[in-house]
Amino acid sequence: MNDATDCWDRETLGVSGCQRCSSLVESRSQIVDGVGPTDTNLLFVGEAPGANEDEQGEPFVGRSGTVLDTELRDAGIPRADVRITNCVRCRPPENRDPTVTEREHCRTYLNQEITAVDPELVVTLGKVPAEHLLDRSVAVTSEAGNIDEIDAGETSYPVLICVHPAATLYDPNQSDVFEKTLRAAAEHAGDGGQSALDEF
Ligand code: URA
């Protein structure tokens, strides 16, 4: 944990009652913050809450969450040991992708969270967080397992590109990619090593 952790507080940041996105204020039933320890090596970043997350107030608790939990467990990463968050903290209507403006509105919160956690590795789950954080177009399937870098505040962080857990529900080939990426994440965060990344 570092000093920035003290800044990660809903009230201080103004997340509570955030009104920045008029459409999301209408569609959300609550704001869904990240969960998990702030003194972890691994920070997972998804897209935005869906219906289950909006109802329960926690990221990745629906079908995608079940996939994520299973694959994390198989990779030897207890969910309780990592931080899981989203680019956007309010559920978009009809589960549409969050717009670029909505992502930008939420970026202050995400940057503060990244700084507070100060992870060894940020893992992006799907195209939206990869493109948002890396600020470029990303072909997730072909780039899964690659490490890039982002700036959050004054520090840069390695980012491991990963497919979205939901992709594995529709395309079984993606399960293998997802599994390998999480094993690479476990290894990278565990010892700062690169060996599992060589599998790609
Ligand atoms: N998909 C996401 O990207 N985030 C969630 O929290 C749930 C599903």
TrEMBL record:
Gene3D superfamilies given in the database record? Uracil-DNA glycosylase-like domain
Family annotation (PANTHER family) = TYPE-4 URACIL-DNA GLYCOSYLASE, TYPE-5 URACIL-DNA GLYCOSYLASE
Key words, A-Z: 4Fe-4S, DNA damage, DNA repair, Hydrolase, Iron, Iron-sulfur, Metal-binding
**Which Gene Ontology molecular-function terms are recorded?**
4 iron, 4 sulfur cluster binding; metal ion binding; uracil DNA N-glycosylase activity
What reactions does this protein catalyze? Answer: Hydrolyzes single-stranded DNA or mismatched double-stranded DNA and polynucleotides, releasing free uracil
Q: Which SUPFAM superfamilies match?
A: Uracil-DNA glycosylase-like
The answer to whether keyword Hydrolase applies is yes
**Which family does the record claim for this protein?**
Belongs to the uracil-DNA glycosylase (UDG) superfamily. Type 4 (UDGa) family.
Q: Which residues form the Uracil-DNA glycosylase-like domain?
A: 33-187
Q: What is the lineage of its organism?
A: Archaea, Methanobacteriati, Methanobacteriota, Stenosarchaea group, Halobacteria
Highest taxon, organism lineage: Archaea
Asked whether the keyword Repeat is assigned, the reply is: no
Its top-level enzyme class, in one word, is hydrolase
Which species does the entry assign this protein to?
Answer: Halovenus rubra
**Name of the protein in question:** Type-4 uracil-DNA glycosylase
Q: Name one GO biological process term.
A: DNA repair
